[in-house]
Amino acid sequence: MNGVLVSVAAFLGIFGIVYVFLMTRHRERIALIEKGADASIFTDRNQSYYPTLKFGMLFVGIALGILTGNWLDKTYDFSKGVAYLAMVFLFGGISLILNFLIERNLNRPHTSD
After folding, report:
1. How far apart are CA 101 and CA 92, in angstroms?
2. Distance (Å) of CA 19 to CA 13, 90, 113
3. What pLDDT, on a 0 to 100 scale, did the predictor assign at position 85?
């Protein structure tokens, strides 16, 4: 019974936070539009043009982290929690850094002489 209550409370808490965030953002935007503010402030200047690349690289990094954590656990008798968690964060972070470098290279204007 306690597990059900915790799950319901967690769901309601997350739902409440998302609802308040979206309603506050909506009210701010409506207020700015009523004042005649420029709509360009709503666009994200740092938007990723390759979100599938980012998520694909992240998931591959997480999978490599799980495999490496399993290998460390079996081969070198590491603690399971430490091996898996450290490798998932390490490879996930490396994949996001590589994604940043790839996107920066793709967005760089190429000049031909």
Report:
1. 15
2. 10, 33, 53
3. 94
| Residue appearing with tokens 């760089």 | 108
Dist. CA 52–CA 24, nearest whole Å: 29
Could you read off the pLDDT of 27-55 as tens digits, one per residue?
988 888 888 877 677 676 666 678 899 99
CA-to-CA dists, residue 112 to 104, 106, 108, 109, angstroms: 18, 15, 13, 10
Q: Which residue type is seen at 48?
A: S
Q: How far apart are CA 81 and CA 100, in angstroms?
A: 28
Q: What is the pLDDT of residues 89-108, one digit of tens each?
A: 999 999 999 999 998 888 88
The DSSP result for 74-100, as a single string, is HHH---HHHHHHHHHHHHHHHHHHHHH
